[in-house]
Write a structure and sequence with these properties.
Elements lengths: L1 H5 L16 E5 L4 H4 L28 H12 L4 E5 L29 H17 L6 E3 L24 H17 L5 E2 L1 E4 L15 H6 L16 E5 L7 H17 L3 E6 L17 H17 L26 E5 L6 E5 L1 H10 L7 E3 L9 H4 L3 E9 L2 E8 L5 E3 L11 E7 L8 E2 L3 E2 L4 E3 L3 E7 L1
Parallel strand pairs: 1-2, 2-3, 3-4, 5-6, 6-7
Antiparallel strand pairs: 8-9, 10-11, 11-12, 12-18, 13-17, 14-15, 14-16, 14-18
């Protein structure tokens, strides 16, 4: 499983051993696993251990499975390790739980525990630094717009709401703790639950770019040492209908540009029904993979995302067909201590981007000569292009139609390009980033129906 996610190696037959992820997110747990059934989180697999013991000491043997994959990511030279938190440790929360039980949209963190929470996070970062597992980024709040309010026994996971004022308080404390401990980890925030909360809506946790990142924002972050001008948000629930998909992302890009911040899409999977695009019932693996690629394309080309991250690689106990969320579908045994897994087309669809669009590359503006509107393009052929310099050019092309399509790239301002190779993901068995032979670029490039194709030019 780690090889499939992280490897950049090529097998002897030219196929890829993995999708070469360049980022891996590690959840710092709140301690609901230690609480057992009294945690109130109904699914024991959604409870998470905490490194901090009730007596204030630390147990670094906790979260063993999480740590195993973190080390594997490091072994495979994954460029960015990101630590994120859903809830502060339960000993710091107002109700002693890893989620809210009151719908007041206020943080579950006790008012006098902000510094303790920040010190805890700094201690975790410092420990892993000492283990040569450096977190490039630390995300102290997650989806602050959701109230995460449930009665005990009904909670689905750890979580806490945060107002913009509370986010400012928490991030300021974390910045100070990182500085005090001479740590270099950067802070990633605010992980908005929907993209439109970054620029609009009218709640205590809305207009987050203007409030947190603008020079005249009410809770401006400008003087914090560890906070880059990056705003993070999640693409959930803004994918239903092509007009909505496009307009939300255009508004976000315009607002981010106005206030000089870079946007990261830091969490998405097909949680709602937008991916069905008006159809009823289940959709095929390839339908899901194509829709995943479509959202990635629009986040990159319309919202101008500088990073893109998926939730989640896998999750136990789900029917094999329900693969819209995951890269690998788990089939656990009776006691959930072993089992099997199957690879979904989502893995390879993400790989069409992650394996070829690498950190440091820049996206190129592309134009087309077919006269289609952006809404029409979203049901036709979608194109994104990236460069690592004048001698490196990559295009990812989604053919959303049922017909074979042809494209003829008109490449300018690059050294003469003579050849290309394609890597195709389609519904066909074996079309999992399937490589083509090196081909002379002397005409149109053919795209299979309902496929995602990465084109590497030489």
């Amino acid at each position: 499983m780690a090889e499939l996610l992280f490897s950049k190696d090529v097998a002897t037959d030219g196929t890829f051993k993995g999708i070469g992820l360049s980022a891996w997110r590690f959840n710092i747990g709140a301690g609901t696993a230690e609480q057992g059934d009294s945690s109130g989180i109904r699914d024991f697999r959604k409870r998470v251990e905490c490194f901090l013991n009730p007596d204030g000491t630390y147990n670094w043997d906790k979260q063993a499975g999480y740590q195993w994959f973190l080390r594997k990511a490091k072994d495979y030279k994954v460029e960015n390790l990101i630590a994120f938190v859903n809830s502060p440790p339960v000993q710091f929360t107002q109700n002693g739980l890893g989620y809210k039980t009151v719908k007041d949209h206020k943080a579950n963190l006790k008012p006098d525990k902000y510094n303790a929470y920040a010190d805890f996070l700094a201690e975790v970062v410092k420990h892993f630094d000492e283990q040569k597992l450096h977190f490039n980024y630390l995300s102290p709040v997650n989806e602050p717009q959701w109230d995460w309010a449930n009665q005990p026994g009904q909670a689905s996971q750890e979580g806490s709401p945060w107002s913009n004022e509370e986010i400012h308080h928490a991030i300021t404390a974390v910045d100070a703790a990182l500085t005090q401990n001479k740590l270099t980890t950067k802070i990633l925030t605010p992980e908005a639950g929907q993209l439109d909360y970054l620029y609009g809506n009218n709640t205590a946790t809305s207009k987050q770019i203007q409030t947190l990142f603008a020079a005249n924002g009410a809770y401006n972050f400008s003087d914090l040492k560890h906070l880059p001008k990056i705003v993070a948000g999640h693409s959930y629930f803004t994918d239903n209908g092509d007009n909505n998909l496009i307009n939300v992302r255009k508004h976000l890009a315009d607002t981010a540009a106005k206030y000089g911040v870079s946007f990261w899409q830091s969490e998405y999977s097909m949680l709602a029904d937008g991916y069905k695009e008006g159809t009823r019932g289940r959709r095929s693996q390839m339908d899901c993979a194509l829709f995943l690629a479509k959202v990635i394309n629009h986040d990159l080309t319309i919202a101008n995302a500088a990073a893109w991250q998926l939730w989640n690689a896998w999750e136990p106990g789900n029917a094999e067909w329900d693969t819209r969320y995951y890269l690998l579908a788990l089939k656990p045994n009776a006691d959930y201590k072993d089992g099997e897994f199957t690879i979904t087309k989502n893995l390879w669809a993400l790989g069409n981007y992650s394996r070829f669009v690498r950190p440091g590359m820049k996206r190129l503006v592309t134009t087309r000569n077919d006269g289609l509107t952006p809404v029409q393009v979203a049901q036709d052929v979608m194109v994104s292009a990236f460069t690592g310099g004048k001698d490196k050019l990559v295009m990812v092309v989604i053919n959303y139609t049922e017909q074979t399509r042809l494209i003829t790239p008109d490449l300018k301002n690059f050294k003469p390009i003579k050849n290309y190779r394609t890597y195709t993901t389609s519904a066909n068995a074996g079309d999992d980033l399937k490589p083509s032979a090196l081909t002379n670029l002397n005409g149109a490039i053919s795209l299979q129906p309902r496929s995602i194709t990465t084109i590497v030019f030489y």
